[in-house]
Write a structure and sequence with these properties.
Length: about 220
């Protein structure tokens, strides 16, 4: 029997660090372990667009207004049908979604390596810290020439919270697959993106299990 639905919220008050891309890729990876539902609460509805193009029916998706997100998450939790619920949020709304964040088993903050991005991620992290909501950072869109910036970002972010060791590199396959309703592994099974996402999900799963164990 399913114990409970793990609620994983992807958030960062900054626009464009890769929230939707990471959300779709993690949701796909999670389908190998259980039943997955995704909620798009971003008025842009990018995740919903990705889902509508999706050729397979391995994931359930709902588009929900901010005013209704709490009820939607509670309903899905009560239903007990899903092992994982991923919620993709909008940058600009992050500060007004604290009620949603309180429902999160874990918040994932995708962050690029620039100083501006790190600064924005800091604001999101402080808010989560204030509410004692578990969160972790994932460095995204890292190019080989960003190595030093990535190290700097990791050091700064590690003072604020957990930084996942698995990073997501800048790869065209992420962009191209998202436009087709699929993920990198489905578009290019031999791409290094496949192992990258597997490793990211495995780290997140381990962290989630630890959080469950320690209450
Ligand atoms: N690792 C990556 N490599 C290459 N391109 C990426 C990567 N991650 C995201 N992108 C691209 O960067 C752009 C922004 O990504 P995405 O839409 O996932 O960000 P977001 O945080 O959801 O943005 P928003 O705040 O507007 O919702 C998209 O064009 C996406 O394809
Ligand atoms: Mg998005």
């Amino acid at each position: 029997m399913r114990l409970s639905t793990q609620v994983i919220v992807i958030a960062n008050q900054k626009g464009g660090p890769g929230k939707t891309t990471i959300c779709a890729h993690l949701a796909y990876e999670a389908t190998k372990k259980g039943k997955v539902c995704i909620i798009d609460v971003d008025p842009q509805k990018s995740l919903l667009g990705w889902f509508k193009d999706r050729p397979t029916s391995d994931i359930t998706c709902y588009a929900v207004e901010y005013t209704e997100i709490l009820e939607a998450v509670e309903e899905i939790q009560t239903l007990g049908e899903y092992d994982y619920l991923f919620v993709d949020t909008a940058g600009s709304h992050t500060l007004t979604i604290s009620s949603l964040l309180l429902k999160a088993s874990l918040v994932i903050i995708p962050c690029q390596a620039s100083k501006l991005d790190v600064k924005a991620a800091r604001t999101t992290a402080h808010m989560l810290d204030d509410h004692k909501i578990p969160f972790c950072f994932v460095l995204n869109r890292i190019r080989p020439q960003d190595k030093r910036d990535a190290e700097g970002a990791e050091t700064t972010l590690s003072h604020l919270g957990k930084v996942l060791t698995s990073r997501v590199a800048y790869r065209n396959v992420y962009m191209h697959s998202m436009g087709l309703g699929i993920v990198a592994a489905e578009r290019e099974p031999s791409s290094p993106a496949v192992l990258e996402i597997k490793s990211l999900w495995s780290e997140i799963e381990t962290y989630l299990n630890r959080l469950v164990k320690h209450g």
